Amino acid sequence: MEKLTLSEVMQCLKDEFSTDKWSRQSVKDILESYDITHGDWRKYCKFDDHKYYRVVIDQGNDRYNLVILCWNCGQGTPVHDHPTAECMFKVCEGSVCETRYSFPQCGVKCNLEVSEECCLTEGQVGHINDSQGIHRMCNDSDTDTCVTLHCYFPPYKTVNTYDERTGDKTEYEVKRVTAE
């Protein structure tokens, strides 16, 4: 696949999800083809001193949405799942570290068990769904910001967050900020 601009990525995703015959590999190929050096993602960036910032840049066709996440130094998500969705993401700037955990056993209070840790750098693409476990993402840098582009399919309204010490689960409504 040739290198794509962000608007071309949006069109390719819209085409891919226009039928029920979409594939994870095609979504991954589209994100891998996105040429982040265009810098067209920058117009959506906003950094918040208190928490990472997320903005929906393409609501798709009710089968996916495309979201930019902006991370200041040390900012991260809580441990969470994707109960009804998959997430494919590309690092546009900086690096993001992902820690995956095994799902906690129902009714058993214990520390979450780390199953995998990795850091992705500019240009790399990652993927998560609940069959792989739950996860946390973080910009571990003390000096650099991070920007990631996420494709959620299908879009979701709630996630469950998990306490790392007890495994306790809390439902959380995802706040939607859309690009102007």
List its salient traits:
12% helix; Jelly Rolls; 180 residues; three-stranded antiparallel β-sheet; five-stranded antiparallel β-sheet; mainly beta; 36% strand
Q: What features would you describe in this structure?
A:
This protein is mostly beta strands and 180 residues long. The protein has one domain (6-173): Jelly Rolls (Sandwich), CATH 2.60.120. Helices cover 12% and strands 36% of the residues.
Distance between the termini: 30 Å
Number of helices: 2
CATH class: Mainly Beta
Percent of sequence in beta strands: 35-45%
Describe the largest sheet: 5 strands, antiparallel
CATH superfamily: Jelly Rolls
Counting DSSP E segments of at least 2 residues, the number of strands comes to 11
Rg calculated over all Cα atoms: 16 Å
- CATH architecture identity: Sandwich
Which class do the helix and strand fractions yield? mainly beta
Task: List the domain count as a whole number.
Answer: 1
List the secondary-structure elements in sequence, H or E. Answer: HHEEEEEEEEEEE
The overall average pLDDT, rounded, is 92
Strand order of the largest sheet: 1-2-9-4-7
Low-confidence stretches: none
Q: Tell me the overall shape.
A: globular
What's the arrangement of secondary structure elements?
Layout: H1 6-16, H2 24-33, E1 53-58, E2 65-71, E3 79-80, E4 86-93, E5 95-101, E6 114-121, E7 125-128, E8 134-138, E9 146-153, E10 158-162, E11 169-173
Helix pairs in contact: 1-2
